[in-house]
Automatic annotation (TrEMBL):
The keyword Transmembrane helix applies. GO terms for biological process: DNA damage response. It comes from the Bacteria. InterPro entries: 26kDa_periplasmic_antigen, SIMPL/DUF541, UCP029033. This is SIMPL domain-containing protein. The chain crosses the membrane at residues 6-26. Keywords: Membrane, Transmembrane, Transmembrane helix. Pfam families: SIMPL.
């Protein structure tokens, strides 16, 4: 066999192999395009089983020790009041005392701010409660004026609500969202005269927790409402199936 015949033979073999690769590429491309992508939704409503609440109180005095002693008396009254309302001592947490120097300030004739002479100390402290007795702490937060009526300068914050079994709720929602997505995929395949093949990919969205029937916006990183005792959680699952 001469060199020209060998070259022709090699060229023909390369052409056949090339056709084989091209056929496989087309087959694989069509296979990748023959898929269904669907998104399922899982939701769950529940009631918070954990509440946190806090308030702050303060005293002003030109003498630091006197201010601290007065604040300590207020702290004692607040602690005894909370205990009288059925709050356990282990649930009551007092923060460290914050001390701020105060100065008499004014604006001069040119309108410039001027910090004047020292006028005394402002001492403040925060008390917080975490409890599973949600109704009790709710009632306490609404009637905290009883402390104010005792001559204590007290500022109450709004309660925050949480749920300790969120992991279980999330599992239930994932199962519901997966079922919803699969049913959608089966319906699409059925309507197109095909059958659902194997699952290729599953992508889970972030959990969104809002107040029921609210207009709260969903967040890309997830939303976690703490202002409502009643909550509604939702999550999405995106599934991609092959179609036979």
């Amino acid at each position: 066999m001469n060199k020209n015949s060998i070259a022709v033979a090699i060229g023909a073999l390369g052409f056949v192999i090339g056709l084989g690769f091209l056929g496989n590429a087309i087959k694989n491309r069509n296979k990748s395009e023959n898929t269904i992508s669907v998104t399922g939704l899982g939701t769950k409503q529940f009631t918070s089983d954990l509440i946190t609440w806090s308030g702050s109180f303060s005293k002003n005095n030109a003498d630091l020790k006197s201010a601290y002693d007065e604040l300590a008396l207020d702290r004692k009254v607040i602690n005894e009041y909370l205990l009288s309302k059925g709050i356990q001592q282990k649930e009551i947490v007092f923060s460290s005392v914050d001390i701020q120097k105060q100065f008499r300030s004014y604006n001069d004739s040119n309108g410039n701010y001027v910090q004047g002479e020292f006028s005394g100390y402002n001492l403040s402290q925060k008390v917080s409660i975490e409890s599973k007795e949600v109704a009790k702490i709710e009632n306490l937060s609404r009637n905290i004026t009883e402390i104010i009526n005792r001559g204590i300068e007290f500022t109450s914050s709004s309660p925050a609500y949480f749920y300790t079994k969120l992991a279980t709720v999330k599992q239930e929602m994932i199962a519901g969202a997966t079922k919803d997505a699969k049913e959608r995929a089966e319906k699409i395949a059925e309507n197109s005269g095909s059958s659902l093949g194997s699952l290729k990919k599953a992508t889970m969205g972030v959990i969104q927790i809002t107040a029921p029937n609210s207009n709260e916006d969903y967040s890309y990183g997830g939303t976690f409402n703490t202002s409502s005792k009643e909550k509604e959680a939702s999550i999405t699952i995106k599934l991609e199936y092959e179609v036979d």
